[in-house]
Amino acid sequence: MSDDFPDEEALNRRHAEKAAKRKEVRDRILATKTEERGLIIVHTGTGKGKSTAAFGMVLRCLGHRMRVGIVQFVKGAWATGEREVLGRFPDLVTMRAMGEGFTWETQDRARDMAAARAAWEMAKAMIADPRYRLVLLDELNIVLRYDYLPIAEVIDTLQAKPRDLHVVVTGRNAKPELIEIADLVTEMTLVKHPFRSGVKAQKGIEF
After folding, report:
1. What is the Cα–Cα distance from 34 to 32, expressed in whole angstroms?
2. Which of 11, 89, 122, 152 is most buried by a 10 A CB count?
3. Residue 16 shares a structural domain with residue 101
4. For residue 188, with 0-12 CB atoms within 10 Å meaning exposed, 13-18 middle and 19 or more buried, which class applies?
5. Coil, helix or strand for 40?
6. pLDDT score of 59 more than 80
7. Which of 4-8, 47-51, 128-132 shows the lowest per-residue confidence on average (mean pLDDT)?
8. What pLDDT, on the 0 to 100 scale, is given for residue 78?
């Protein structure tokens, strides 16, 4: 075999050498990561998948027998697939759908603010409850965007959460103050969505 076309044995040897070097570097990095604590996690952006990714974390927690609390700030009126499934784990999941729909559906600011306050009081109770290992605040960013809750109160509560508790916040337009205190922030970017082509929300995909 010519030098221009090395044989498989040579390719495999070079691959193994490079992989060993990468592993050595990775192992050195991992050796410095020793802290274990609860995280503040934010899923935001215009793209689809914010709540979906959060419920993926909920599923992982169930696999580890970790108790989870969920407060849905907007989607109260929706019959969602995740609510149906998670309702089968009453010993591990407490799920409260507190919202009454999106603001353009209720068209009542005072009513929306009251619903947001009730949901937030439920969320605070879950955050303070030592039984929970993860609390999901689904679409909290939406009510914060419209100033239905004081951002300072939310920030104070999240910063004072139990050390071992993970809190996940979803929704578009996350406030800069929330992004600042978060440990992990992911922005979902919209590239293409079937809704723009006339496709309605569908079971198993959107709800």
Report:
1. 6
2. 122
3. no
4. middle
5. strand
6. yes
7. 4-8
8. 65
**31-45, 71-85, 167-181: which has the minimum mean pLDDT?**
71-85
pTM for the predicted model, two decimal places: 0.84
Q: Do both 28 and 55 map to the same domain?
A: no
Amino acid at the residue 186: T
Single out the residue of 83, 78, 77, 72 nearest to residue 50, CA to CA: 72
pLDDT of residue 60 exceeding 60, the answer is yes
Q: How far apart are CA 65 and CA 136, in angstroms?
A: 16
Q: How far apart are CA 30 and CA 28, in angstroms?
A: 6
Token pair of 94, please? 């407490």
Asked whether residue 204 is assigned to any structural domain, the reply reads no
Phi, psi of 143 (to 5 degrees): -70, -30
Residues 21 and 42 occupy one common structural domain = no
- Domain identity same for 73 and 130: yes
Question: Is residue 26 located within the same domain as residue 43?
Answer: no
155: domain range? Answer: 38-197
Number of domains comprising the chain: 2
Phi and psi dihedrals of 178, rounded to 5?
-70, -45
